[in-house]
Amino acid sequence: MSDQISVLFVCLGNICRSPSAEGVFRKLAAEQGLADRLHVESCGTGNWHVGSAPDPRASSAAAERGVDLSGLRARQLKVEDLDCFDYVLTMDRANQADVREIWHQNGGTEPKLFLEYGHSGRAEVPDPYYGGDDGFDQVLDLIEEASAGLLDDIRSRLA
């Protein structure tokens, strides 16, 4: 097993859910002394927001939990990402279907739903983009819980 594990979080536009997951996961990994063992990124299946900072509502909700998203910029998923990352984690079934189509054509790491690592009983992280501010808090709750489960899985791989 490699000394470093790479994780890619994927949503639709890479301005709400996946950058939030990237930020939360990096923070939790650092708190557990695993930051130097992980490479973490996020991206979107669409190209609408490439180069944009995360949605201000996502950044604000994350900042309230001590998570800084200010350095993140949206990018679109690339075919080669499936060869470069150990974990490719999608936020919902639509994102997963888009990534799986690429995976079926090109191989690489099979995408999984991120919430498979959580215990919420939910399969998808809802997209808060068109909703109110409370949706961003709900997203962070789901991300924090699934991130803890993902870190447990990664720790077992690094052992």
TrEMBL record:
Protein's name according to its UniProt entry: protein-tyrosine-phosphatase
Residue ranges of every copy of the Phosphotyrosine protein phosphatase I domain listed in the record: 5-153
Residues at the catalytic site: 11, 17, 127
InterPro entries for this protein: LMW_PTPase, Ptyr_pPase, Ptyr_pPase_sf, Tyr_phospatase_low_mol_wt
Matching CDD domains: LMWPTP (cd16343)
The entry's keywords: Hydrolase, Protein phosphatase
EC number: 3.1.3.48
Cited Gene3D superfamilies: 3.40.50.2300
Family indicated by similarity: Belongs to the low molecular weight phosphotyrosine protein phosphatase family.
GO MF, one annotated term: protein tyrosine phosphatase activity
Superkingdom per UniProt: Bacteria
